[in-house]
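Session log. Operator J.P. requested a structure for one protein chain; no other inputs attached. Running the standard single-chain path with C-alpha cell output.
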Amino acid sequence: MNKLGRAEKFAKQKHKGQMRKDGKTPYWKHLQQVVINLRKLGVKDQDVLCAGWLHDTIEDTTTDYDDLEEKFGKKVAEIVSQVTKDKRLSRKKRELQYVKQLAKSSLDAKLVKLCDIVANIVDLENSGYSMQKKKKQVDDKLRYFSSIKQSIVMNKMNLVGIDQLLMILNNEVGRYRKIMI
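Structure written below.
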C-alpha cells in the first residue's frame, strides 16, 4: 500500500466511531473531502495529501506528532502540527494562538487549512446547528481564513482550482453572512 493509502487507512482507524455533527456521517468523510479539495487545487504532493487525511489526528485522537513522524515522515507531521490547536489552553487563548499559528504556518499547511475550512462550511448545512451557531462557526472559520488568505493569494498562480474553491467558499459563507470574502 502506498503512503497516501496508508494515511487514509490510519485516519479512518484513528477516527473510527467518530461522527460528524449530524450524528450519521462517519468523520472520515470530512477528511476525504479535504483531500478532494486539495486535489481540486491541483495539489499532487503526496505528503500534503497525506496531511489532508491526517490533519485532525493530533487534535481529535490519541495520535501525537511522533506517531505521525514515525509512520509518515517529518513533513507530514509538521503540516499536521501546524494546523492543530493546542487543547491545553483555554478556549479564548487557544483561538487567539491558533490564528497566529496559522499565519506563520507553511503554504502546505495553509492549503490544508483552506480545504478544511471549505469542507467545514459546506457541511454546516447538515450539522443540525441553529442558525446562530452556524453563524458563529462561519465567523470562526473566516478568522482562520483571514490569517492564511495573503499566502493563498500570493500563490494563486500555482493553484489551478483556487477560483472554484473560493467561489464555493463565498457562496456558502453568503448563506450565513452578508459579508463576502
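Operator note: The mean pLDDT is 95.
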